[in-house]
Amino acid sequence: MREGAVRNVARDDQECIQDLRLTDPRDDKKRIEDTKGGLLIGSYRWILESSDFRRWRDDQQSRLLWIKGDPGKGKTMLLCGIINELNKSMTKTDQLSYFFCQATDSRINSATAVLRGLLYLLVNQQPSLVSHIRKKHDHAGKALFEDANTWVALSEIFTDILQDPVLHSTYVIIDALDECVADLPKLLDFIVQKSCVSSRVKWIVSSRNWPDIEERLERAGHKVRLCLELNAESVSTAVSIFIQHKVLQLADKKKYDDKTRGAVLDHLSMHANDTFLWVALVCENLEKIPRWNTLRRLDEFPPGLDSLYERMIEQICKSDSADLCKQILASIAIVYRPITLKELTSLDKVLEDIPDDLESLREIIGLCGSFLTIRGDVVYFVHQSAKDFLFAKAFNEIFPSGTEEAHYAIFSRSLKVMSRTLRRDMYSLRAFGYPAEQVKQPDPDPLVELRYLCIYWIDHLCDWNPSSSAKYKVDLQDGGAVDSFLRQQYLYWLEALSLCKSISKGVVLMEKLEVFMQGRADAPALNELVRDARRFIMSHKWVIEKTPLQVYTSALLFSPARSLIRGLFKREEPNWITIKPDMEDKWSPCLQTLEGHWSDVWSVAFSHDSARLASGSIDRTVKIWNASSGACLSTLEGHRDFVRSVTFSHDSARLASGSDDRTVKIWDASSCACLLTLEGHRDSVMSVAFSHDSARLASGSIDRTVKIWNASSCACLLTLEGHRDYVRLVAFSHDSAWLASGSDDKTVKIWDASSGACLLTLEGHCDSGHLYSVWTIAFSHDSARLASVSDDKRVKIWDARSGACLRTLTIGKTLHRSSFYISGSYVHTEIGTIDINALSDLPSPLTISEPCSPQYQGLALSADRVWITHNSEKIMWLPSEYRPSCSAVSRNTISIGVGMGRVWICKVEFDIS
């Protein structure tokens, strides 16, 4: 690799590169090689001759090589060897950029660190590429690489470089994807997308055999998969070469005689199981053993990891601390996250009697063989294979009564510890308005031992099988342990969750508990209490999350007068409020209000699986919410002006947003990475819509055009011209063959989505047309009909082939979103579902000049936005502050944007028969 080219760049370029540098991957490579005892050519040479590697190297279409294998198989050293060989064979203009992920090093264990490292090597070799970074760095400075938007900025920069025609032929190599701790999904999706961008760039990545990595990389085109397990003979030969090398080093350093050297060589060769890691660890231990004791100690290293684990279990079972060790192993094996030493003491009563010092706890962990290790007072399994062994081959010893009983033990212990410890104002904040973001953990922290129990006790309860433990069923009955805890400690538990920054988790837990308790006839009072407790946390989640002590003020005072939780904790209500709010007796249908936008919400949309909700705002952001818990999953930043439209792809995997900044952005709905920025419109983008196969995206703009884009690239496939005013809405037919657009020119146009030809124009200056701007359009599932809604507050149903107007419905308000149900009998809008078939019950046939009122099926909003209705019957009046500026309906749930940055969700549950 050429070095030192950066000497020729300008001072500003040098400053930019210095700010970019987080690590020099060349130094990381050398450190790794030195740590592993140097790079042995014989241990990697085989891969250069493999058919998979040669296909990747020689085939122009094979752009991504994925090397995968189990831990200890030598993947990192293989990549080090490949880097060396590519360096030797490259031309003067070729470039090589690489990065080594390492989970234990915070500098190099994130997706943003990977991009910084790759970019650093690229600009060092081709300094002219720094101009792509300077565009953003000149404005943002070093913060470009350190703030919340770093991933978005770096991914855009990297994409620009890949598409730059001056970029030379380049190799990009990333080792140990499984050790990318932060934002791995973003990185994987980035690799999948960018490996297809340029034929001048070839990629190599390595990882363990992880299903989630497999699932994402499977989407990549032009890839070659090289599995080490399928190259066992080559790996075995490489391990043998490695063993011989290590034994020679040992013999030279320890002065082994021929007998000892031969015995060590034989033992390693017989027991290595083609695992470099096992060989390296054993040799490291042998180096510490006196030469005269080597032969006797060799048998302490059994063949393979499983044999070693079996010996450890036998030693534990024979020890005086067998019961304690097995209980600890069982607990560590089923917890949902690694726990601290302090948290461990709260899981077992025996540990309470042990002196409260970390050294004693460390000694106890040491009694558990070598299954566990401690890093920074957190207890981990020494390796995933150790945990797998306990479940697969030591299950009866560790879980004599099954994992359900182990879960029950933690659940039961949790309630006992929390019941005697939780109290009001755990951190002595005193001020009712003390913000959670300013809370600092006191020393000592009264929650240090409870944090895990507070967050996960319901999870352990739900993983216990009550039917297998009749003696414990009383815990789930009226007056039992759960009932007593909720009646006596519920508010204190919510405060603790807030202090642990886990209120959103609490919402999910209470929903999970409600489902778990359903159908239990022996606990009617507990079921009612759980339902009330769930409504309490959902209604007041936002304020409790922001200010923990508001659980005793605002949350209580603004709960219904007959709320069970309010009644049980009436003693906690503030006595300094003499005139309290006059509340309704029962909970309203409003489940929660989503707060977070700082300005008006202009667009909301449910994902097609109804699990998430997206909102676009004047504050230039898009937020993705969990539709059940109300948690803000992510805030998508990148638009430079108002966000007017949001929509999910039909597989719910991606999200598109259109903005006044004239761009459309496509986001990964899971990782929230900005995948593409589509530029081409000359004015604000009013509407975006995915085709039903999610392959294309349409956008309508104030510039009077419609554009159809490739949703996997930035390519604009078609620009459709013909409208004489703003294009407000676009919609694909369900077979993705046609595209409809609605405009302020009072027309709807139907286009051929492949050729761009205008097939029909549904005119607005006749009796059958709209009199005002068209705001929403939708095809029926068979693509035979089209629904459109205009500022004239009418819905029109058109024959999509002939252009004839079939029906006209008077709605009474302007709509912004509509779609047909599969049966074609209903039109779904953001205010509800219109029953088209109900029109057939009218006494006389309709004509296009005789508009009628629609009949709504299920949940809906009245035209004047004052009422929520069900089957066209008014069921709830909306105060003025809750009347929507935009809305979306999904089954029995309605989400409403009410201005000032708020979204609230209302759910209606009752027997509609």
From TrEMBL:
Record's keyword annotation contains Repeat: yes
Domain of life: Eukaryota
SMART domains: WD40
Domain NACHT: 63-283
Residue ranges of WD repeats: 594-635, 636-677, 678-719, 720-761, 767-808
InterPro entries named among the record's database cross-references: GPIID_WHD, NACHT_NTPase, NPHP3-like_N, P-loop_NTPase, WD40/YVTN_repeat-like_dom_sf, WD40_PAC1, WD40_repeat_CS, WD40_repeat_dom_sf
Xref: CDD domains: WD40 (cd00200)
Keywords of the record: Repeat, WD repeat
Keyword Oxidoreductase: no
Alphabetical list of SUPFAM superfamilies matching this protein: P-loop containing nucleoside triphosphate hydrolases, WD40 repeat-like
Protein name: WD40 repeat-like protein
Organism lineage: Eukaryota, Fungi, Dikarya, Ascomycota, Pezizomycotina
